[in-house]
């Protein structure tokens, strides 16, 4: 098979060494990997390179085992030496990004026996299979489905077991002689999904100058997103070759010219008085209006100051009253001394005894009247009445 690697960094990165797309392949094991590090994460290009290199060394087609492998690769990312910016503000942002971990998309291709290959993917990197002029794409067949992707491989999420099986997609394909397979990162994938006829133009690129012209043309037409561009083109054939179409170390896009601040002297104000009386009257009216507004503002500020002083005074009075009433002693008239209570009991004792005596006398009289009434009815004599009265007195005592 013939292998062609196309790669170009975005113009905003200026130099090729800052590209965040990474690829790897292993001719002995017939496997390929492509990853796109996200700009928002910290040192994403390092994490993308680790994913691709480790997959090329040990390809895996089962999703759960691949997640386990990726989790074990996090230690390589964490052990990478980090150099922060000399600018304190930028260094602070970089440390904050570092805590969020590295993030990248991934697609891996592994050739199997019986003219088949398996693809496993996470993110918006895409595969195109061109067979008999028919284009089949995976995992996304439209721009909308590609843009709807929300899954990435993040180092911290791997350690927290938050990368799940449904984050990945896997599929096996059959191929035949002269078929073409293209692995492309998201920006180039959108262009190929938008206009599949551009695939033949991409396949015809044989030199870096052609690749640079291709990208700039579609960047300027706004059909290709200004991002890192990477494609791995695999032609199934009887020959074996590898062609790298990448920028030279000396290549860089021109930096944007930043406007230079040049201080200039202030224009000289003419001492000549060219103002008319009407101009002076208008200026005077404007000045009077400003003075009036300022006076009204001062009145409002004084009023607000007075309200504030009243509110503070009321608050202080409430605090003083609250402190006084909480610390004041209880009413002495409400307290009953032990001596006074005893005197009250003694003074009430005699009237109670007198009332008891009167009550007893009244009861005796009532009993006597009752006896007299009974005596009349039963014709009792005086002695019996006397005896009964004595018995009643005894019983009372």
Concise synopsis of the structure shown:
The chain contains eleven helices and twelve strands. The chain has 397 residues and is an alpha+beta fold.
Key terms for this structure?
397 residues, alpha+beta, six-stranded mixed sheet, six-stranded antiparallel sheet, 11 helices
What does this structure look like?
The chain is α+β, with helices and mostly antiparallel strands and 397 residues long. Helix content is 47%, strand content 18%. The chain has eleven helices and twelve strands. The protein has helices at 44-57, 63-78, 88-100, 143-147, 155-159, 186-194, 198-203, 208-220, 277-327, 338-378, 382-396, and strands spanning 2-8, 21-26, 31-37, 103-112, 116-122, 126-131, 134-138, 153-154, 169-174, 180-184, 229-235, 241-245. The strands form two sheets. A six-stranded mixed beta sheet has the order 7-6-10-11-1-12. Strands 2, 3, 4, 5, 8 and 9 form a six-stranded antiparallel beta sheet that branches. A hairpin with a 4-residue loop joins strand 2 (21-26) and strand 3 (31-37). The radius of gyration is 52 Å and the shape is elongated. The termini are far apart. 24% of the residues are buried. The mean pLDDT is 84.
